[in-house]
Amino acid sequence: MDEAYSEVIDAGTGTSNPICKCGKRARILTAFTLRNFGKRFYTCGNYVNQDNRGCDYFKWIDMDICQHVKRVVSKLFDMHENLKNERAQIGTTISNEILKCKLEVAEYKAKMEVASLNFEMQLQMQKNKFNSKETKYRFTLACLLILLVVMMFYPVSNANSSRLRLH
């Protein structure tokens, strides 16, 4: 862990906390530097960050910890950070896989829509063929009826034909 790395965990202000130079209850923070890893300290009640520390009130709460404990805690913190990074990478991988699946579903949906349209067109063509055949059948039937009527009412000019004339 880098010495310059510093993060704090705010434990808030308690009624037993000392009063800082601003007249507010001091806040309890935890240091995460290599030198003072995990040590709690009091700071100004107006503390916001390293650049805005209020009245600069500061007092250690915890005693120094031995080097071995510092190394163990530092190693655990590094492992925790690595796990957070791995989790973020896994989350990104999962998000990418979900996106790929959504794209595949959209592609299959588009293919199904095209297939459905093709089916509808083929069905319509079959209906048109049927309607066309039905129309031809009706037309042929009408022609035959007209021919029959004409043959009934107009004799054939053949001498052997004996058709009844209606005049």
From TrEMBL:
Task: Write down the InterPro entries for this protein, in alphabetical order.
Answer: Znf_GRF (IPR010666)
Q: Which PROSITE patterns match?
A: ZF_GRF (PS51999)
Residues crossing the lipid bilayer are 137-156
Q: Does the keyword Nucleus apply?
A: no
What UniProt keywords apply to this chain's record, in alphabetical order? Membrane, Metal-binding, Transmembrane, Transmembrane helix, Zinc, Zinc-finger
Gene Ontology molecular function terms on file: zinc ion binding
Transmembrane in keyword set: yes
GRF-type domain: from which residue to which, for each copy?
20-64
Q: What is this protein called?
A: GRF-type domain-containing protein
| Naturally occurring in which organism (per UniProt) | Carpinus fangiana
